[in-house]
Design a protein that fits this description.
Length: about 200
């Protein structure tokens, strides 16, 4: 349901440039729900090339790996120095806030904060003087219409808008719960999301 809330909050307009940092389970789900042919470019940034490849499958048009490119410089080049209309942060780390702020256009760009920032840290907010419109639509508490979003989310799953067969990469029996936690903590190869399925055979 959070994915639906985020997609409904992003609502980029025709011809918009969209930038997103983070291709975890939520980040990839966001791309699936937001990407559209009406967008000029959907630029996605992540450190994992396999996840960037999946991001392209789900609708990203340009992918950037910070280990291989100057992300801010590339985004500015792509947008002709203007910056993006919508920037989505889905990493939960200071670098996500800094990067989305740096690529956002001046005057009423839309900044959507999705990452779970759970530990004290130092954040650079210099770019926020651009006067962004800031949203944090994560979770049921941030939804203004959770019943409708639940219905929409179930419909989207039925229509395979959110391709869970690609996003849920690991499935475990109940007795394998320790392995499930270990794979999550260690980020096992190819891991995006794991689920416990008590009746898995």
């Amino acid at each position: 349901m959070s994915l639906m809330s985020i997609a409904r909050t992003a609502t980029p307009e025709t011809g918009d440039f969209v930038f997103q940092i983070g291709c975890g389970f939520m980040g990839l789900g966001i791309i699936a729900g937001v990407a559209h042919a009406k967008l000029r470019e959907y630029i996605v940034c992540d450190l994992d090339d396999d996840r960037l490849a999946l991001a392209k499958e789900l609708g990203a048009t340009i992918t950037l790996n910070p280990n291989k490119a100057d992300v801010v410089a590339e985004v500015m080049k792509i947008t002709g120095g203007r910056g993006v209309d919508v920037a989505i942060e889905a990493v939960g780390q200071p670098v996500g806030i800094k990067t989305t702020g740096a690529v956002l256009k001046n005057n009423r760009g839309k900044l959507i904060l999705v990452g779970w920032h759970q530990a004290p840290n130092t954040y650079e907010l210099f770019h926020w003087i651009k006067s962004p419109i800031i949203y944090s639509p994560q979770g049921i508490g941030m939804s203004t219409d959770h019943r409708s979003e639940l219905q929409r989310a179930l419909w989207a799953l039925e229509k395979d808008i959110y391709p869970m067969d690609k996003l849920v990469t690991h499935r475990y029996k109940l007795e394998d719960i320790n392995q499930a936690f270990e794979d999550n903590l260690q980020m096992a190869p190819g891991y995006i999301k794991g689920v416990i399925m008590p009746f898995l055979e």
